[in-house]
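Structure ticket #2291
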Amino acid sequence: MTRALLAVVALGCAPAAPAPDPAHPPRLAAPLSGRFVEIGTTASRSDANTLEIGAPAFVSDREFILGDLPSLTARRYQIEAGRVVDVGAPEFTSAATDLDGDGAADCVEARGVLWGCAGAHGNVSLVLPPVLTPADIDGDGRLDLVGSPPVDTLTGPPFAWWRQTAPRTFELQPLPAGPCVRRQAMRVFGGRVVAVGWTCSDAAPADRTPSQIWYRFAGGAWHADPDPIGYVPSSPMDLLDLGGGCALIAEHPEHVEICDGVRVEVPPAFAVQLSDRGVPMIPWGLATITVEGRVLILVAHGIDAWGSPEHDAIGRGRSRVTAWERAAPGDWRLVEGTGLERLGEWRWIAARGDVVVVGGHGEPARVYRFE
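Resolution: structure written out below.
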């Protein structure tokens, strides 16, 4: 049976970012022959960060849905003849993947599953907020759905999961005990599931206290697990499956790599990248893309404040997207000159095929294609 692990983490006040170490600059990877070229922007903005929606839901290599959780709205975009085209307003979509194994992406919407991302909805009845992630929780070969509890209370369960008991049939399962978690997002790696958010009992955002609780699914039930990171993180923002039982977690203000439940030290030069005003940037969103036969890990960086004008006013400057190659656990090498260095206040990033979409606060999402 596949073991599934759920980490519930809470947002909190972050410690000071580590100071850059000029004596240990990042190791460099060989440059790419091509580069990413911006082909357009979206007509809508997604001011949500990674915790609230994650990144666009790709229906195909040339089509994606960009949702905004605070407003529960979405726009659908296609890439046609090298241009980004707005093709309508679907329902809010938190995920798009092949749930029934027919080769076509299925859209997970607020009212249920839209099979093939078109036509009639399935039999999943959800209660907002509809932030769901597909994952095979019980190891039966079918993708289940993990998400926010169906009832948003201060004493509710940490998460809910709908098991796919038969093709296109989902049933809400018994909920695990634990603290209620709100506005969470899910990440999957190596048969594990990680949820990030904050506890429902927290006070105002400025008073949120970091916490972390890990769960493991075995024997038909959820069990508490020790914290594999070894310390209480301040604000985990995103997680990326690296394969081989390893994952990269975008922390605030650093990165953490985990392999087989053990923390792997990441070189300081990887974690500490600077804005255009010399302030350490914060990793918010993660994505991976394969170009020229090379696997790149893309990191969307930002600064811990809301709104680009505020950042400029307080002197923190603007951030950028960085690209890395991972030669081995803990061995990360910077890829320069990718074309993704445009300055901005980035919160999320997604990639599929040769397309990258990156967005943040205060401006439309930008769409790039590798050429």
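Closing remark: The longest strand covers residues 282-291.
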